[in-house]
Specification:
The complex is a heterodimer of chains A (248) and B (366). Chain A has one domain: Cupredoxins -  blue copper proteins (Immunoglobulin-like). Chain A is built from two helices and 17 strands. Chain A is mainly beta and 248 residues long. Chain A has a five-stranded mixed sheet, with no helix packed on it. In chain A, strands 1, 13, 16 and 17 form a four-stranded mixed sheet that branches. Chain A starts with a helix and ends in a 6-residue tail after the last strand. Chain B folds into two domains: 42-197, Orthogonal Bundle (Cytochrome Bc1 Complex, Chain D, domain 2), CATH 1.10.760; 206-350, Cytochrome c-like domain (Cytochrome Bc1 Complex, Chain D, domain 2, Orthogonal Bundle), CATH 1.10.760.10. With 366 residues, chain B is an all-alpha fold. Chain B has helices at 3-23, 67-77, 90-93, 140-143, 146-149, 158-166, 169-179, 186-197, 206-211, 221-231, 275-278, 310-319, 339-350, and strands spanning 256-257, 287-288. In chain B, α2 runs antiparallel to α7 (169-179). Classes of the chains: A mainly beta (248), B mainly alpha (366).
Amino acid sequence: MKRYSAAVAALWLAACASEKKTETPAEKPAPAPASVSGKVVFEGKPPMMPVLKMSEEAACVRLHKAPVRSEEVVVNEGGTLANVFVWVKSGLEGKTFEPAKDSVTIDQRGCTFRPHVIGIRAGQTLVVVNSDPVSHNIHPMPKENREWNQGQAPQTPNLERQFARPEIMIPVKCNVHSWMRSYIGVVDHPYFAVTGEQGAFELKGLPPGEYTVAAWHEKYGTKEQKVTLAPAASQSLDFTFQERGNQP
Amino acid sequence: MSIRKLFRLIPSFALAALLAACGGSKPPAEEPKAPPAPARPIGAAITIQAPLGLPAVPAPAENPATAETIALGRRLYYDKALSIDNTVACASCHDPKFGFTDGKQFSEGVKGQKGDRNAPTVFNAAYATVQFWDGRAPSLEKQAEGPVANPIEMGHTLEGVEKKLSADPSYKAEFEKAYGPGPITYEKVEKAIASFERTVISGNSPFDKFMYGGDQKALSPAAQRGLTIFRDAKKGNCAVCHTIEEKSALFTDNKFHNIGVGVDTKGELTDLGRFKVTKAEADRGAFRTPSLRNIALTGPYMHNGSLKTLKEVVDFYVGGGSSNPQLDKEIKSLDHLTKKERADLEEFLKALTGEIPANVGPPEAR
């Protein structure tokens, strides 16, 4: 028995010693980061978006040359879809990342939220701006995070808030102007993007590995795809959303 | 010493200690002597008439208003001599030209110093059961001690004011006319100012004529709809704090509420309000409900003057107040109000502008 325990102890020491070795400065370099990029394709006839009921506030109407339409579905000229939140849904569990150094801004401008869809990291600062000559009242309605509400009269200081926990997606409204809507995606890592006028996204600097990448759209829901990224790989990945309601 | 004498001494001694504590700068060597008997106006007491829509004007037993104290109070109210450098009078921040406020977000005291709360109106302050946004003064009389001795408002001391006024023979004569022979004391000063302020009563507004005067045409149709929204608990629910009674309306419950004003960029309360007085958790960020009478004259609004127009005020309540742990349970978003209903509410608020009594402006130059 004694001999046995001595052997175990020796093994343990050896294991420790070898573990120590890996911690020496001559560390193995991290594998070259990979990236995944692509576009979000729209199929079908783009639905006609209703005009926002800005007539409720004359000062808002005056801020625009033409009536403003809902941004629920924005199909780009090239047949791609804007305002899609793309993020790494799984594969990064247990990893930690440097906290974000910059902030993300949501502007209440022209009596709309700009941008319409926002991605942010948990704990990262969201700066809330009111660029309008009217009062706004931003009211995010999360399920996983603390709900809050804050009025912002014209020419008052910007607000700075954080969301503590990941949440896909937090709807945001303005209590004063019922037509105003925005969506905020909160993730606990830096790998996310929102598609714009090109309908494109790119998630850069990912450690090689297996991931589930997801794309969310406010009308068409969420789609997921699995990818395996080799070191230094530039993987391409497209998503497709279809409009079924008005197919001929 | 008889028991009776002892009992008489205890309160006066306590009062002396309190006054000494308030004065702050009295040399400690001074013997605590019994204070003089309370100053009493010698003239005939006047009943200040309440206009339509307001209840009887409170008249404290220890300070009945007389023609002489009111006139003296009016002179003091408009006199910059009450400030350390003769630059600021009560009327500087509570100016009849701006509905007895100063029209500014924050008031400016001596040497251009700025405070951090919006000057409340003197209109109908007579009815407030406590004074200041946080209710730290129990009466109009005690209120008149605050700004004079506040280093960023009038920057003086109560003793300093007594000395300064005593050096002016015309004041000496006027104080004696009001209170009889004797030195000018700050007690007499504050009583006179309070009596003058009790005459700054404003009612008989279009709302009063409609509500209490039977004049159906006094309110526009929009203002009438606004009144309904104002009172309806399911619509505006404004009257839950800005009260309207059967025979009169103060438009205040004289209580303290946290309505979610004054939350900083990070979501923290910037001014703890009533909490500073009571230290009660529930009072964090709570402020005295201001009356809404003459509200169209007294902008900007809220304890921090953060809202410039009545539209911004209505939009604020539509928004539902900024989130904070002590937000009053009655504060909920009024986003169910339509554009028209919001505009009607604003029209109603504008119908609360009342008549301004005579003889409350600056006294004629002597």
